[in-house]
Amino acid sequence: MSHAQAPRPLAPAGTGPLAEPVLESAPFALEISRFACRCGAQGDSCQPYHGFWQYLRLLGLGKTMSGFSAEFVAAIRQAAQTHLGPSFRILISGCADYSAYAHVLAGCAGLSAQPRVTALDLCATPLILSRWYARRHGGDLAAVCSDILDHRHPGGYELILTSSFLGYFLPARRAELFSRYAALLAPGGRLIFTTRLRPGAEDQLVPFGPDQKEALVRTVVDSLTELSGRGLDRREAAQLAAAYADLCASYPVNGEASLRRLAEAAGLLWLDCDRRRSEAARPGVTGPTVGAAEYLFVTLGRPA
Fold this sequence. Notes:
CATH topology of the largest domain: Rossmann fold
Number of helices: 10
Shape: globular
CATH superfamily of the largest domain: Vaccinia Virus protein VP39
CATH architecture of the largest domain: 3-Layer(aba) Sandwich
Distance between the termini: 55 Å
Largest sheet: 7 strands, mixed
Strand content: 15-25%
Helix content: 25-40%
Radius of gyration: 19 Å
Structural class: alpha/beta
Strand order of the largest sheet: 3-2-1-4-5-9-8
């Protein structure tokens, strides 16, 4: 860290509108990721992402729920308030950690409709974290380790949530994803999601560039005093930051029109869309997950 830049204080556990004890859970996430993270078809592991993500959040280099935390809580609450049944079935499609579940509990707090939540991911690590959080904060949570395209649920869900998930899918498979969401929604159910907008061809994978990777590693190492006593030394932090940059890449979504076509083809109603520019997580750091960008916060619905 430069002498001109004072250490940025870390937020203590449980502060703010959500109870997210990241200071406590970051070392736990790193530890369990070493044995629980899955390997892909090419032998690459998601451990640099799931194991390091909460440390990036602590350093201000990771934005939970794509920076739309308040919007997710409000949208969850609105959907729960309009639901007439005693139980409110929710699917979290893709989890980085327990944050989406924390948003569900915050959105449904004090309401008569009790959320019955299914957290679904290909990897066990975020599901273990979600169960860890549920044991401490309550609620009805089922964890399912599966591909979303293979998931089935009798009766469907009243609400499906996902954040920055579309970038994992080639454009040719996004239609299949939206059709699966439509099939999983109960009549009148809603799909709420965020996605980053990026110009260019949607079938061209966008990785961290060499300079972006170097800047991320340098920022993490220079900021390491902020993580003193949090289970991460300088060498491992540099390795994880580099591996995170190597792993994280996404296929762009280049505009609202692309999403509207997907929704229409799946038979979903376009209910709302909020467009916002999100600034870089920290000055001088750019890349697929940390740079300044425009995002969309979209609400779709299945006809009643």
